[in-house]
Automatic annotation (TrEMBL):
GO terms for molecular function: DNA binding; N-methyltransferase activity. Gene3D superfamilies: 3.90.1530.30, Vaccinia Virus protein VP39 (3.40.50.150). Signal peptide: none annotated. Residues 194-217 are annotated as: Disordered. Keywords: Methyltransferase, S-adenosyl-L-methionine, Transferase. Transmembrane segments: none annotated. This is ParB-like N-terminal domain-containing protein.
Amino acid sequence: MEEGQLVHSAKAEEVIVPEQRVRKIFDKKKLQDLADSFLRIGQCQPGVCATLNGKVTLVAGERRLRACQLSGLDFLFLLQEDASEDLLLDIEIEENLNRVNLDWREEIFAIEQRHHLLEKRKKARGVMEHSYKATAEDIGRSVGQTYEDIDLAAYAREIPEVAEAQTKQEARKIVKRLKGEVVRKKFLEQAIDKSKEEQGASGASAAGEPSPESTTISVGGINISSDVLLNYDKRVIHGTLEKELESFKSQTAQIVFFDPPWGVNIDEVRKKGGGTSDFEDTPEQFSKELPQWLDQIFQSMASDSHLYMFFGIVRYAEVYNALKQVGFITNGLPLMWYKQGAHVTRNPEIWPGRSYEPIAYARKGSKKLERPGAPDVIVTPAPTPAMKQSHPTAKHPDIYMELLKRSARPGDVVLDPMAGSCMSAVACEVFIHSHRLDWLMIEKDQEFRDLGLTNIVKGYHGVVNKEPILDDSKIDHASDEEVRRATSAT
């Protein structure tokens, strides 16, 4: 309280709280603790009131007023015309921080305001430094929590995606991702620029292997040959399927992986966790664009080639009708990818969890399978949460490895026109020595493109945290019972 201000008092129960005032719900224990404090040392900080129609009416300080009512003490207050803006703000911040139904945005902004107000007061006294520790002690919270909340407030004020998060935890995940994007982009740009300076773009090997003159550089702690990095960078294109396939050499790709938005509103039904950006996925978009996408893909494929298209089972009829209309050959039976450990459902008490994903296998021409009679149920581990940090629908590299084993011949061109996490390229690189696959990724979102490139730089071991199994005899195949459960679930 500023020196010289006249403090008034009134019986707490006689102070009017206006009906139009937003009623605040305070923590009962904290309110009782404040009342007990008033009984011991008195009400040190007054509230603010105005005189309306001859009655004392509360302007600010409802928490102090209620504590006085609990303790039976008179309520001390300043008249509104005598109260400074700092005092009104101070009371508002304190009340906000002690509300029970406090929204996370109101909470972090209140803490930030309190920090700046304390900082301002210290500067007014000639003290130029104010620490997060001092603010933490003032509001009764840990230093780490206080710092994180003030940092989060700065992001929430400037970035709508952060401010629109449902919870503080989700907002922090978004901020973490945004910070990671900045660091990752910086590492990639620096590494690519350095590679160009030292080797020149022409030094990159077509097969993705380092040349004898290549130097080793670090990308975010991952060591990689400079010309291999440049090779990857050229093969992961930031662009759209529609535009990039116009310039893509026609009838070239022997294998195409296609994982478009499924048209099942995944951007609405998926519980947002803040790990990655959202993307458009509406039934209307799917129905409108699928025929055009498939036609462009068909034109880009070699005369003898295979297509593997991931899709939502509810779109079965639409997908297979579009495939046939474009000119693909199918038997109408999708492959079933059984993801061990995955049981996804929005209503677990009503519906069984989904643990499979259908894949439309379609042919152009007469390309034969490299593994004749391979089963139509494929079993791999489910994608891990870490994998999905790079894209909300990221696949496990093992599914692409299995499909490549079925279709790939040495030197085949592999195209993924909606690459997302680029796990298909991670799988292609596993076969670099045996097949030297010529792969190309296209991704329209810059963030996902950079995340995908990072996955390729990490390689299979860095993404999965173990070495790939190339010898099928060493694979721990699912039992007949597991396969039976997977197929019966469909």
